[in-house]
Give the backbone structure.
Amino acid sequence: DAKTTQPNSMESNEEEPVHLPCNHSTISGTDYIHWYRQLPSQGPEYVIHGLTSNVNNRMASLAIAEDRKSSTLILHRATLRDAAVYYCILNAKDTGNQFYFGTGTSLTVIP
Amino acid sequence: DAGITQSPRYKITETGRQVTLMCHQTWSHSYMFWYRQDLGHGLRLIYYSAAADITDKGEVPDGYVVSRSKTENFPLTLESATRSQTSVYFCASSESRGGFEQYFGPGTRLTVT
């Protein structure tokens, strides 16, 4: 299964943009790129996903490199509620939709 | 209640005992999943199910049994619990395969003494 690499931790000041990187150099053409986040003592929560084009939703933006070997989750204005562990996950289109989580990036938001 | 629920939320059991964790979803999603999360780690897939009566192994299936007689329920059974199975267990569901959002339950914290 394709693997992802993320920094273990990042910090951001409140109300500033945050760019969370993810490397996935072994991505295949049918792999979706998903981002989930996990707040303390909660289950993971969907943030965004994409295949080839950049994506925007109310929570965040996903920027996908042209060669698809990396992506960046962008939180436009970090709030204290965005402090969480963020997981970048590859999911093959033609498989059973199972996800393989790495250890993610722990985001600290500084007031 | 609408959504995905897990029960119990907390469970303490002894080594060697059988324990079943329940998962129920109200969306009629085809796919359901069980993950475990150990302290300081990401989630690891135990088993998943594509539909009623269809299940398959994930990364770490040893020591676990699943069944899915109804679309909405996906119980996970530890037939003979071991201390290494102390973990937080998350159930999830998804509408379909590949590219679809997974919805996670609140988790069950299991301690095996």
